[in-house]
Amino acid sequence: MRSVLPILTVVLAIIVLWYGATVALNAQWTRDQAARAGVEVGFSEIVRDTLAQTRPKLPAPHQVAAELYQSTWVEEVFGRRGIVATGTLSNRSLIYHGWVTLSATMLGFAFGTGLGILLAIGIVHSRAMDMSFMPWAIASQTVPILAIAPMVIVVLASIGIKGLIPKAIIAAYLSFFPVLVGMVKGFRAPDAMQLDLLRTYSASRARTFWQLRLPSSVPYLFASLKVGIAAALVGTIVGELPAGASAGLGARLLSGSYYGQTIQIWAALLAAATLAAGLVVIVGAIERVVLGRMGMRS
Amino acid sequence: MIWAWGSLAFWALATALNVWLARAHSRNRAVRLFIPALFGATLLLVWEGLVRSLGVSPVILPPPSMIGVRIAESLPILWADFSQTILKGALSGYLIGCGVAVAVAVLIDRSPFLQRGLLPVGNFVAALPIVGIAPILVMWFGFDWQSKAAVVVVMVFFPVLVNMVAGLKATDALQRDQMATWSASYWQGLFKLRMPAAMPFLFNGLKIATTLALIGAIVAEFFGSPTRGMGFRISTAVGQLDLPLVWAEIAVAAFAGSAFYGLVAVIEKGVTFWHPSQRGRA
Amino acid sequence: MKRLMTSVFALTAMAGSAYAADSVTLQLKWVTQAQFAGYYVALEKGFYDEENLDVTILAGGPDIAPTQVIAGGGADVVIDWMPPALAAREKGLPLVNIAQPFKSSGMMLTCLAETGIKTPADFKGHTLGVWFFGNEFPFLSWMSTLGLSTAGGADGVTVLKQGFNVDPLLQKQADCISTMTYNEYWQVIDAGIAPDQLVTFKYEDQGVATLEDGLYVLEANLADPAFVDRMVRFVRASMKGWKYAEANPDEAAMIVLDNDETGAQTEGHQKRMMAEVARLTAGSNGALDEADFNRTVATLMAGGSDPVITALPVGAWTHAITDLALN
Question: By CB distance 3.0 to 4.6 Å, which of A99, A121, C166, C182 could disulfide with C276?
């Protein structure tokens, strides 16, 4: 709770800076328009105009807030296609798009985490796999998957994989890596003394894994899950970007960009950031509960 | 069919060889390089074999041999794109972003108030899908490499900042007391003790930032660019169904990314030679 | 992996089970908008049902190449412009135009009047925004007809890959940008720039127009009578949709709006787009005009040292479908 005041101060400072930047960035358009209309504008008119443009370079915070409110509460409750009127979420609301993105993210996160853990188990137990695979796992992350996401989606569609799964695969590609790295570290966390102890009990490899390596990797698991789930969200959004007219926060970002609707872009961005922060917080909460139960405090 | 079975047989043989090598000769330096190289070669061969035997159209997935030929043919294009995207966009953005992040970390290091305020906000922003701001930054900074560098700056800033702040806290009270007994000033303490102690954390952030920098620079080109650059070439070549060129660019990006990562890792080894994680693997 | 395999099986099983109606998958060139109103109208008004067709319309986007989708088997028929389709044909992907609902080209270059550009001769030394991803071919052909280098410098023009919006013009990053009569031009107007502050060059007026939205299929499929039959019915219903849309533009625009999944389209913009698109489709009954085709090919091959296509395309279009569909 000690952090509330500092955070508020920083947020307030950001908002003040934001307003300043809004005026500065949007002023050129105001002056251009005035010049085209052949009128002089004073400072106060510039300020008033820059904070209320329909296609600003940088929308003012209150414009973004209004758009967020419009595209969630107002759209669902009062809209022609809102949940109150039709019983289903409106395709114009950020709640609907957020939900589409969230479901692909969770699927991709599950794929990615599973894959990361399995590979980590393989790497810890097989020296050959460690030496041959690990450098390529690092190289795999330098492939600009984001740049080829559109192609990946087309190629997968050509073999009949459509809908959520292609997006989830891209999300998994990004989220498996932090999990892999974290879990390799985690499975190797037991020190020589603990391993030796189990050897004196003549415990099998499987038993060592289940009773020593796995439990001691849990703190590492959660640390990498937090990175992984944020990465999965980024992957899903990027997977949605090329999908043009289909739903999701990425599609919303793209169509906002396509129609020059900067306010819409910022609202979608904020919604995505909130979603990401929420997911990380949830993982963090689970972490506290699990580690507490296991008698480990992080 | 001969391609399919041939490549599968090669895969089995190579795996067996790798397992044997890893068991018997893992201390040998050359073997340590050979094992991943063989694994990579196997992947390429299986790819080639599957594409050929299944008759996959080259406009969907070209075989590696075709990509190799395309790389050899289009070296001037690849070089122009490389210097536009990596040297101008990614590298300058990386240097600026990391430099500013380190500077900010040192600045807020003296104020616990700012740290408590900035770090949660920083984490929130770091969770932002930064690619989403690419179209906005292109709008602000124009079409040339400056806007790509700006995207990279934003992408690398927070991971480096968060790691550096954590690193500056990595000294323990005993060490700080020691500096105090020598009546070291704040700056002496910072440069002689806490900066070196922060290096392992800093490099952790710097390594993450290398891949982010490449991705940011390439993706930003999708939202507007001059008529060169890797992201530009990839999207244009897909439109022209020139898939071998697309994969050639991807190969260059992956190679550049790995080299960049490797370079940072080598510097890390030199700087943090004293750290436990670097010892014991001479 | 196991889950993935099950869903693959589920999909193939679904595709295998007998449909009452014949299925057709159509890949659009761009996002859902009134540019494709005819197909959405045919879908919603039941024209496809009347022909016993079950049509799936896949929306496109800035990074979806229809040519690649059809090559991968993701669609039976795609909407594309003729230049990328012919270029793909030369790359070894035999696409055939089976119908051409768009008679005229809607492409133009829009410049700010304040830059002093009045005729194409004034382009020299200016910065022009162009779409890429297969849409750059008409522009490149035009520039080589004008004898302008696209490499920049005082004697040529500097080319920007513009994103898919009009910001480069508004932010003055480019002196001219590519626009469509039915879409981007109106976004510039909506942003608050008056028409008399703009100078536009229509490709149609400059004599370098190339054919836009046509229906393309893979050549090999045309040997299959069942496929031809499906396409005949598809083209007939689609053209009925187009003519309905031309006659009832406002209703067509609302149908498009209801099919837009992103919810980003606005009613005003779509109604205006529909009115503009109707002008481009008005001259076509669906059959390709050979003269238009020859003009397109001539433009594309005129490209100086770097033509879009190098050889005269043979068999790149057919009247076989439209003759049967429109009899």
Answer: C182
Which chains share 3+ C-beta pairs under 8 angstroms with A? B, C
Query: Under a CB-based contact definition with an 8 Å cutoff, are residues B127 and A276 in contact?
Result: yes
Q: Which superfamily, per CATH, for A94-293?
A: MetI-like (1.10.3720.10)
Nearest by CB: A127 against B22, B131, B136:
B22
| pLDDT above 90 for A113 | yes
Do the two domains C2-104+211-326 and C107-202 of this chain adopt the same fold?
A: yes
- Of A179-193, B163-177, C294-308, the poorest mean pLDDT is in C294-308
Domain ranges of chain C: 2-104+211-326, 107-202
Q: Taking the domain B70-278, which CATH number applies?
A: 1.10.3720.10
| CA closest to B235 among chain C residues | C133
User: pLDDT (tens digit, 9 = 90+) per residue, C17-31?
Assistant: 444 678 899 998 888
The residue count of chain C comes to 327
Residues of B in contact with C150 (CB under 8 A): 227
Identify which of A280, A244, A275 has the alpha carbon closest to the alpha carbon of residue A103: A275
CB proximity B187 to A under 8 Å: no
* In contact, C160 and B143? CB cutoff 8 Å: yes
B50: exposed, middle or buried (Cβ count in 10 Å: 0-12, 13-18, 19+): middle
User: Nearest CB to A160: which of C12, C30, C31?
Assistant: C12
Which residues lie across from C2 on neighbouring strands? none
CB pair distance less than 8 Å for A126 and B127 = no
Pick the CATH number of C2-104+211-326 from 3.40.50.1980, 3.40.190.10, 3.40.50.150, 3.40.50.720: 3.40.190.10
Q: How far is A5 from chain B (nearest CA, A)?
A: 8
- Chain C residues closer than 8 Å to B143 by CB: 160-161, 168, 173
Residue C208 · residue C82 · CB < 8 Å: no
Q: Is B26 on the interface with A (CB under 8 A)?
A: yes
Which residue in chain B has the smallest CA separation from C151? B227
Domain C107-202 sits in which CATH superfamily? Answer: Periplasmic binding protein-like II (3.40.190.10)
SS3 of C159, please?
A: strand
pLDDT in tens, B86-140: 888 889 999 999 999 999 888 888 888 887 887 777 777 776 776 677 778 887 8
Q: How far is B214 from chain C (nearest CA, A)?
A: 20
SS (H, E, C) chain B: CHHHHHHHHHHHHHHHHHHHHHHHCCCCHHHHHHHHHHHHHHHHHHHHHHHHHHCCCCCCCCCHHHHHHHHHHCHHHHHHHHHHHHHHHHHHHHHHHHHHHHHHHHHHHCCHHHHHHHHHHHHHHHCCCHHHHHHHHHHHHCCCHHHHHHHHHHHHHHHHHHHHHHHHCCCCHHHHHHHHHCCCCHHHHHHHHHHHHHHHHHHHHHHHHHHHHHHHHHHHHHHCEECCCHHHHHHHHHHCCCHHHHHHHHHHHHHHHHHHHHHHHHHHHHHCCCCHHHCCCC
* Interchain CB contact of B244 with A (< 8 Å): no
Q: Contact A9/B261, CB-based, under 8 Å?
A: no
pLDDT digits (tens, 9 = 90+) for B263-276: 998 898 888 777 76
Q: Which strand (E) or helix (H) includes residue A186?
A: helix A164-187
Chain A: closest CA distance from residue C162 (Å)? 11
Kindly list the partner chains of chain B, i.e. chains with 3 or more CB atom pairs below 8 Å: A, C
Q: Find out whether C264 and A255 touch, Cβ atoms under 8 Å.
A: yes
> What is the spatial distance between Cα C36 and Cα C240, in angstroms, rounded to a whole number?
13
| Candidate from B19, B117, B139 with C-beta closest to A7 | B117
Strand-pair category, C77-80 with C214-218? antiparallel
Residues of B in contact with A280 (CB under 8 A): 123, 127
